[in-house]
């Protein structure tokens, strides 16, 4: 189908709007292209956090999953964080067949119930309150032994807040323990070192996680708290980079995974849960040598991939995201292109399409990935922005596609390192890439839209200073709005009155492409433009 107007959408990952200059790597970067575009065309802030993207409350910062889901679906779905809250509060989670099977398995075999996941209250991938509720219920149902395997966060929480969380959970587990119930932390490490890789960027991370949690191999400590304290003091690392550890007694790990055990991965978000789930779930698994594959029951908190069905068992049903922009455009025969570097490839494909991997219609779509480097991104803050822009420009010049989207990872991935100076350079690299894309759009007569999925890089320092008066790094996302630009020389688009957010984007894309929007039964939120 021919469209009136071809459209390129650039998602600047983790680039919010704030007028506070202190620690603002967006405002303080030299971004002549973005400044020029904001001046010449329309730019306005739109909402990208809280209930606007299906999170429990408006104090919840946005994240990539909920942001890309909202953009790609054109509507707001209650997201994993909210669905798990509801299921735990109502007790429905414990009525599921999956939960009953997990408990029965452990009780029948006198086995151990393992809980593995991100240890924080960040609410992006997991929540410590969910972990506590699962442990309490396991005890109430007569399970005798629980082992918790923790991943330190500091990425959705302050960078060195892990000491508080590990102490909290170890206190909680020892309070729960009695003559019939033995609950302890058994292993762990930083989320960027073990277990929580995504989009197959770094399988050795997952292998190291398997060795730590399942095989109990690694440096031994008496407790998680001792491990955290020693390892952070020795290396000076922030939480996400804490080396792996194993809790042991008399040289023996206290919580290896054995035949007859049950394992729950208690993260609700899927991108960083899929690889470890595959390692637990797949009989024939060849990404690394598991050495031993215990006969256990495994479940995820949610179904992480609703297309390929990973994992095979889960505790809470995920949002059933359907009627997406991709489905609508494919239905109309509109040709679409998506590109990002590895770290964000699934964001513009899997998250964009409602947590479904793969194409909607391969005859109409092309998805391309530029491999990310496995390096600390503060050392190379430009990341693959130039290569992603080059691929996108080639796709524009080929004139084969009607709607093209891409994601630049820099504001977010460099933002999460907490290194302000690097994040400024990351923003400048994005700006350079956008300048090139804008010129390609101008030449080909395409409309360029630019937005972001949530804030991050615009707030690189926490509110407080350290004891010497120096800034304290902030590594997490924000609740700030994000920019939305339409750069079009052929039409003068006017924003409608009112407040808009990421879920208004899909209808807006249809209007700018000049194609019909789906009928009211698709429940899309309205377009932002007249
Ligand atoms: O997974 C991560 O890297 C962070 O927890 C959230 O970042 P993202 O939502 O931008 O991916
Ligand atoms: Mn993001
Ligand atoms: Mn992020």
From TrEMBL:
Its cofactor is Mn(2+). Pathway: Carbohydrate degradation; glycolysis; pyruvate from D-glyceraldehyde 3-phosphate: step 3/5. The active site is at 64 (phosphoserine intermediate). Mn(2+) 2 binds at residues 13, 64, 453-454. Keywords: Glycolysis, Isomerase, Manganese, Metal-binding. Catalyzes the interconversion of 2-phosphoglycerate and 3-phosphoglycerate. This is 2,3-bisphosphoglycerate-independent phosphoglycerate mutase. It comes from Fastidiosipila sanguinis.
